Amino acid sequence: MDWRKIDVFLSRFKNIRKPEDFIRGVIREEIKKTLRFDIEEKNMRLLGGTLYLKGLTSGEKSEIFIKSEAVLKELSLKLGRMAPKEIRF
Predict the structure, then answer these.
(1) Residues 57-72: pLDDT tens digits?
(2) Is 53 helix (H, G, I), strand (E, B) or coil?
């Protein structure tokens, strides 16, 4: 049996990200674009339609609170039903 063909086939799956990682990446990029500051993916948790953020300064929390509707609207357009419905700290 030729194992090299199987190795080539399986190598396609090495770079596939878990759905949670993909969603966190999209959320991170949208926050970076809209709010102009960066949040690490390890400080985000998506649970039951709610996005929990930690490791933020009070100024960053205030800015997210003020612009949360715009961020959630854009995420809804990009992610559809997988998008968070609210943001909490």
Answers:
(1) 999 999 999 999 999 9
(2) strand
